[in-house]
Amino acid sequence: MGLFMPRLALTAAALLLLVGSARAEDAPRDFCANRPGRGSPPCVLDVGRVQLEASFVDFTHDAQGASVTDTTLYGDLAARFGVTPAGEIQLAFSPYVRARRSDPGGISTLTGYSDLTLAWRQSLKSPDGSGLSVAVQPFLVAPVGKRGVGAGAWQGGVAAPVSIPLSGGFVLALTPQLAVVHNSSGSGGHLDATGVFGISHALGPFGLGAEFYVDHDADPSGHVTQKTFDISGSWTPKDAKDTQFDLGLNAGLDGQAPGFEVYIGIAHRF
Fold it and tell me: Which pTM does this prediction carry?
């Protein structure tokens, strides 16, 4: 990593000072977190607000033929900074990843940190997430992760999160995404398309959500399509309106998707 992490820390501190000096004086927008679920919400933080979102633990079990891989993320972290009335910057990083693989040849374990994702969310309609809300979110992934954990090359793409209010307090959420990712062969890149279709509903301090996720990876060595059905729940304590706790389960619907993923995490707005 060299001087990368110290420089990243200084950059983050500078962003905090910048957005902090421009803190909005109007009534704060409703709390809105990226977590839980795979989709991205279109809401944008108020100018000057900072939000940290992290998983305490995130575990994925993936059995493919005679090979079984169990991957655990600890402290998977995302930091969001409200920069303009309609735009925010995001940083995402997993400081510790542990992957244990077993197959007829034996057992191997790999540990390390992930690549760094930098994203910008620009609201096109309703930045507070109310009513019909639309945003565009380009992102770039820097190959800073440990070999075997990170992709080993620059990647990037764009998502377009949308939320649509329905009757009865339900909300429909859509997150189409198109990215250019690294080939498994080690050179070149290819397209990866994902779509998340979700329904959510708030019940007082609790939130419930269900999503259908599909990913098509057009790797030249062999195209792979994965589908999962995901459920999640969240809780915002009555006396802590800027804090949310969450948990979720993602269940594979085909032989190419991991069998299941479970996670529990937190989001807090400053």
Answer: 0.88
Q: What six digits make up the tokens of 139? A: 């992102």
List per-residue pLDDT tens for the chain, 270 residues long.
454 444 544 445 444 444 444 444 468 899 999 999 999 999 999 999 999 999 999 999 999 999 999 999 999 999 999 999 999 999 999 999 999 999 999 999 999 999 999 999 999 999 999 999 999 999 999 999 999 899 999 999 999 999 999 999 999 999 999 999 999 998 999 999 999 999 999 999 999 999 999 999 999 999 999 999 999 999 999 999 999 999 999 999 999 999 999 999 999 999
Cα distance between residue 237 and residue 55, in whole Å: 18
Q: Which amino acid is at 111?
A: T
Q: Where are the domains of the chain?
A: 4-269
Tokens for 79, please give them.
């930091």
Superfamily, domain 4-269: monomeric porin ompg (2.40.160.40)
